[in-house]
Amino acid sequence: MAGDVPTFRSHLYERSAYKALFYHQLDLAELDPSEVNGLPAARDNALRLAEELVDLVANVRAVA
Fold first, then answer.
1. Residue 19, by phi and psi: left (phi above 0), alpha (psi -120 to 50) or beta?
2. What is the Cα–Cα distance from 7 to 36, expressed in whole angstroms?
């Protein structure tokens, strides 16, 4: 339908892991789980969001 704006099902929540990304200037794979709370959940969440983005781009290309 024209005018539809795609939205993501996954969201990046303000978690200590995401704050640590900017504080330490590292990515999620480089952070130490013993020093950062919620890191496994943040990694899983980021993966789900990335998968949604890839699907969105693939769908837009398929329609174009």
1. alpha
2. 29
**3 state SS of 12:** coil
Question: What would the pLDDT profile of 19-42 be if each residue is shown by its tens digit?
Answer: 888 888 999 899 998 988 888 888
16's CB contacts (< 8 A; 6+ apart) are: 36, 37, 38
CA distances from 32 to 5, 13, 42, 50 (A): 37, 19, 13, 21
Task: Report the distance separating Cα 32 and Cα 22, nearest Å.
Answer: 14
Is the model's pTM score more than 0.85? no
